[in-house]
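Response to reviewer comment R2.3. The reviewers asked that we include at least one raw input/output pair. We reproduce the pair for N-acetylneuraminate (7)9-O-acetyltransferase here without editing.
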Amino acid sequence: FKGGDTCEYLLSSGRFLGEKVWQPHSCMMHKYKNSEAKNCLLDRHVAFIGDSRIRQLFYSFIKLLNPQVKEEGNKHGNILFEDKSASIRVDFLWYPEVNGSMRQRIKSWTEDSVAKPHIIVAGAATWSIKIHNGSNEALTQYKINITSIAPLLEKLAKSSDVYWVLQDPVYEELLSESRKMITNEKIDAYNEAAVRILNSSSRNSKAKVKVFSVSKLIAQETIMKSADGLHLPESSRDTNAMILMNVYCNKIMKPIDGSCCQPQPPLTLIQKLAFCFFTLAIIGYFIISLIHRNNYRKSKSCADLESGEERKPAVSSPNVSTLEMLLHSFCKLGLIMTYFYLCDRANLFMKENKFYTHSSFFIPIVYILVLGVFYTENTKETKVLNREQTDEWKGWMQLVILIYHISGASTFLPVYMHIRVLVAAYLFQTGYGHFSYFWLKGDFGVYRVCQVLFRLNFLVVVLCIVMDRPYQFYYFVPLVTVWFMIIYATLAVWPQIVQKKANGNCLWHFGLLLKLLCLLTCIYFLSYSQGVFEKIFSFWPLSKCFELNGNVYEWWFRWKLDRYVVFHGMLFAFIYLALQKRQMISEGKGEPLFSSRVSNILLFISVVSLLTYSIWASSCKNKTECNELHPSVSLVQILAFVLIRNIPGYIRSVYSSFFAWFGKISLELFICQYHIWLAADTKGILVLIPGYPMFNVLVSTFIFVCVAHEISQITNDLAQIVVPKDSSTLLKRLLCIAGFFSGLLLFSAVQDQSRH
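Raw output as returned:
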């Protein structure tokens, strides 16, 4: 389904999510703050012309600029508002009827010598119905008057934004006796006349009066809450004012979560080059496939007439095979990236705002937990945090995080705090996994480092190029990348202490603890030295990677939020492996880790700590206070879960293959959701099938999971080619990669200069 003209949809159609949240058809509406509204309307003149309903809209509009404004003054007169700091002028002009007076005022704006308002919002009809007691003659005169005004409005529309507000329905039961003649039937007749006459003479599609008909839909849902049956309740007026702000400001301010009325961004130089590269890869792959197929036919095995045996065709050379795999991977990746671009950069598919309800979050959570328990299998090994178990852990956490994002649950603070623990648990696994590998294997070679960095960053680098987003935008990948390098530097720097060396002399254990203590000191110092931290990451070219919106504050915030948990993961791995080496824990199948008494005490403490945290998270006042305490308390919940999951032998011996499958592609799921499951860079929801929310989620989720799985396979295939084990070949590849990034930085600089 094509997105179509989102401005037209914003002004004419939509529905309520809940009681107060308005959802335009096919696009997302941004909620403008005072500062944003002022920046948009800087040096602008806005004119509202009409009756008391337009006056209400005027007040709601200026409250977006200044919430302190009170609705006072002459109700049946002109009202002027001015914000001198931003040179904004907003006028309300009292013209309750479409007559000669209104025509004269509008005509005065069409004269060349007069400064025209940048935005004109007009509308009137109920006074004409009331004064003339709903007579047909009044309707006829209304048609004549609006016919005379229409060409003037269309002339103004060539240089200004002109909106004609259709009349809202009334709630006839609440109308006073003096307004009983204002019926919905009469209002519909006046609206029909206005729509038919406006723009009927306009031949230029760009210069036309925009009909503001969405107010009718909003009023149909809320007019029964009106105080007098005629005027809208305040929440509905505010919604109309916000729609007006979106129609005018989205193309100027370009908010990420305001897709309505935003033009498709032009392709950048880097995006064009990426498009050419993927096109060449697709063409190259098909050419090589055709050549191989042709060669295969020529060398097809044929029966030997003398021996009756079959001759095997000649095996293709390894180089050709590698090239074909490379082109095949880039061919698939190119098609997938095209889908990414169409979903979240082109105005092809629809997007909608998120709306949180408890049921939209908790029902899917229960559903996936039941599925996860259903797919239970025995583990291959029964060690603490074995591979199947860590994959399972990543899998269910990732699914919960995905549901959290699509349901908009970040607005509910207790859920937000629990999700923060899940993100911390991912980083805990980073510390635990990489420390365990280096400690046990002692492999500090370049190959290992390059493999990890490639697998972590490949997809994000491609998305930065294709989707024109900074590296820091995908914040989790920079976070785990930097922490991996910190872990590597801590353990690889002289003296390199590994388990094999430490077994010979216990003093090496103290040496390693000293290294970890130095790491903790550095983390503590940086966490309280924002200036030093920002200076480190503000140096070029690091600044190109870690800046977001012109500064590194977002990176500082993300790093600080979970600053200790990776260290705790490393320390946990060290203690666990030391206990394992000395056979102080039992890891046999079905055996508890410790004695029955110790196991029961630890399980009781773990359950109590989890419940205590949930109670504390529910009593949190605001995100700032909770985030301050999060680095200190998140470890307790992670350790509690690890103990509950591993102390009982029968629990440690099984795992959920359902969750483990998702855990293997958890990184791809986390990154891909930004653009092909959610929309507008996670701010909204992608709509492939409008009008059927549940069916849409099922279809988009199926595609999303398949794409994430395919990208995981592509990354693994390319990792074997781009990062070979042979040292000399690897060095050449690294030089090529360095050249690639140098070129990328150069093109990025040219691109930034052209933007400025």
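The longest strand covers residues 88-94. The domain at 6-253 is CATH 3.40.50.1110 (Rossmann fold). Further pairs are available on request from the corresponding author.
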